Structures are given as C-alpha cells and as structure tokens.
Amino acid sequence: MPDNIVIQDFEPHEHDHGHCMADALREAERVCAHRGERFTPLRRTVFELLWSSHKPVKAYDLLAQLAVTHDRPAPPTVYRTLDFLQEAGLVHKLESLNAYIGCGEPGRRHQGQFMICEDCGVVAELDDEVLTAMIDTNARKIGFKVNDETIEISGLCRQCQ
Ligand SMILES: [Zn+2]
Ligand SMILES: [Zn+2]
Ligand SMILES: [Zn+2]
Question: I want to staple 129 with a disulfide (CB 3.0 to 4.6 A). Which of 4, 14, 43, 74 is the partner?
Fold first, then answer.
C-alpha cells in the first residue's frame, strides 16, 4: 500500500473495538486542545456514540440515544455539537445516508472516500491523496470550483460477500 493512502484495514466484525474507541478519544482530545477548544462532556458523549461501532449514526438516532442516557439535550445543541465535530475533522457526514461517522485519521485534513456495506452497514474510510488531487486537477480543467469531494461508494464488505 503506497503511503499516500490511508486505509482503515480492520476486520470490523471481529476486532477489539475498545482499542479503536480509546485511540479515537485520545485523538479527539489532542485535536480539540490543538484548536484551543474544549472537549466538553456533550461533545465527548456524542463522539462516543458515533464511535460505538464502525457504522454511521443518523442524527435522530443520536437524539434518541441521548434522550435515554442524558437529560435530553435540545436538538439544536446536538446539531451544533455535530457541526463542531465535523468542523474539527473528527467526524464525517455521509450525505447518501444522512448519517455521521467517526474519522479514523483526524490529524490530517481530508474529505475521504467511504466504502459503505449495503448489507451490514459497516463503513470503511479510505483517504487517497492521489485521487483527491486528480479530482482537483480535473475540476480545474473545466473551471469547476470544488467545495466537497467526499466520495461514497456502496457495495459489500469482506464479511457480507
Ligand atoms: Zn473498531
Ligand atoms: Zn476521515
Ligand atoms: Zn458488510
């Protein structure tokens, strides 16, 4: 694998997810500190819920989960928290599913390519800088200004094929 490609090559169905979660929390704390922002309890809770698996979470499911475990934060507060996490590069929004997923590589700015399993819902993130650069170059050729170059690919994961 060339080192300009970052790929989450894990077996999402059988691995120590506590490890993923611990790494993600450590990175999130680092990113917030670096931005001079606080990783508030609500930000942490939302982040942990998004990292509870490698499957994306819809905002209304998040609200439902927060209503059970927390004192029902107002939806705009939760949406602001999601915006913050997205802005900080800690989570990605998958438009095709209208759902959010934690980023495995938040230290580096990227938009990423997402392989979404249609069967089990697991999402693997791939960040290929060459692909991103190619999109930029081709867009420039036709005078197109790119705002978002997140790519969402659907298919079947190793387990579900
Ligand atoms: Zn995991
Ligand atoms: Zn990412
Ligand atoms: Zn699958």
Answer: 4
| CATH code that applies to domain 12-155 | 1.10.10.10
Q: Are 91 and 100 in contact (CB under 8 A)?
A: yes
Residues 90-115: tens digit of each pLDDT: 999 999 999 999 998 887 778 889 99
The number of the ligand nearest the C-alpha atom of 86 reads 2
- List pLDDT tens digits, range 25-70: 999 999 999 999 999 999 999 999 999 999 999 998 999 999 887 6
Any idea which ligand is nearest the CA of 52?
Answer: 1
Distance (Å, rounded) from C-alpha 118 to C-alpha 121?
Answer: 6
Closest ligand (CA of 102)? 2
Ligand 3 centroid – CA 158 distance (Å)? 7
Residue 86 alpha carbon to ligand 2 centre in Å: 10
**DSSP β-bridge partners for residue 5:** 128
